[in-house]
Known about the structure:
alpha/beta, 14% strand
Amino acid sequence: xxxxxxxxxxxxxxxxxxxxxxxxxxxxxxxxxxxxxxxxxxxxxxxxxxxxxxxxxxxxxxxxxxxxxxxxxxxxxxxxxxxxxxxxxxxxxxxxxxxxxxxxxxxxxxxxxxxxxxxxxxxxxxxxxxxxxxxxxxxxxxxxxxxxxxxxxxxxxxxxxxxxxxxxxxxxxxxxxxxxxxxxxxxxxxxxxxxxxxxxxxxxxxxxxxxxxxxxxxxxxxxxxxxxxxxxxxxxxxxxxxxxxxxxxxxxxxxxxxxxxxxxxxxxxxxxxxxxxxxxxxxxxxxxxx
Length: 290
């Protein structure tokens, strides 16, 4: 099966998580297994490792590609972490890559990207009912402006203008139609003017920030002493949650559960950006369990 997704910051992940033979591994957003494959090639501990992803397309791929003794779970990472915490399961290495996978962006029918026309879907887990179509066509003008500002970090005036425009162009059922409406109301910019709106709607569909916020406090319970956790973010809203969590966790003196080993987030080097432009906004933060 061909390679579907190029993992971001792979060499940096390997250098900072420092996997060793026999260690257990939890990948909270395994996707198409790029990071997992590299780490498990070193640890060779499949029976004590778990790969989690809420996208059934990803987990089916993982089941095809990885040895049968590894546990693969089709579920959101917060729910999985809660279950592990309740049963006392711990790991030596935990990794989460909060980005959208290449297949989600490239396959038009998933509805994530304005670059590939498709229905307004954007569900990472297609078992859920809320879709981008429902948000765009049924949410109030005020609520749309709110998510455009909060999740897309659009200026309030522009967020209100775009919300008004979208409401008065309903119904809108395709990614291309939504992107065109936004573009017509926008000035030229280096990034597509629909980028932040699509980000905002996607975050709202998948409740992404709440999931991260709820999951972070569970990390200390799931890591063995000396265990490492790596968290990869792709925009300032995610990175702020991770940064603030680590800052708070390490401010407790001798009771601090973590020692942060990345004082500043690690970003992709120019060589990687040539091969994988989608890594341009990625940031890696790593901490060790005390």
